[in-house]
């Protein structure tokens, strides 16, 4: 009888783990359904500039829209196979739970209550935000602490109402919150003079001021942030294979920025790069697609479709976009920000 030492057992376990790690992934029921249908269905907003909004011809654009297109490109090889389903705040989680959409790419905050109790998984943060206040300059308020007694408009079914209540209590600044069923109704009430302030994520405030205000220069976003709002795509629980895909495509876009791979240079690098890290994303190195049930070129297709994460940011919400938001904490980790891709290797 052969006796195996602890060292031999450990080595065998390590080899088994390595073999399992390199085995192709089972496709999963959601990926099978997406391939059979020929589209990736993404739940998006009814219209938040910079994140997901249609133009007058029905063409969608925004950071969340690009995320969906990148996933469609990775899975189906074509960003045009992304299908957008507008959902309001009250509809979004039920639609995902019911399988009406494959992904929620809808500027939605990742918090413990949602993550632990709604039957969904958040994947990778694509925008670090915070809740703030928009006010008309004519009321001469320059700090949120001056809003004592103010009436504040916001939307029902979001974290905004609770955040305001907690901030008001903690800061000793009593306010009156007026909630509306739809986002559009809430900001229209504010711009019509129904409330002295409007509150939501500051990225959305910037979009509203630039797009919806009668005169953008008449309005001010106050400097204080009253919450943390990490925005991330979400998927329904119960399909780990699909969860992995929706988690790793955004990571690939962030790592592409770290490695200098852009929409413009990706084909040149694909033809000549000798960098193993770049090759993995370009589809010319290790075949990591098989671990996700995808083709070897999955990340190449995603980057080719929408660019790296920095390009998505710049195009949709950055200083050169209509929103003119600074990169700030949404910069890469090695440039003073919070974006840190899990290694694609």
Automatic annotation (TrEMBL):
SUPFAM superfamilies: Periplasmic binding protein-like II (SSF53850). The keyword Signal applies. InterPro entries: Bact_solute-bind_prot3, Solute-binding_3/MltF_N. Residues 1-27 form the signal peptide. One of its GO terms (biological process) is amino acid transport. Residues 39-269 form the Solute-binding protein family 3/N-terminal domain. Keywords: Signal, Transport. Belongs to the bacterial solute-binding protein 3 family. This is Amino acid ABC transporter substrate-binding protein (PAAT family). It comes from Pseudorhodoferax soli.
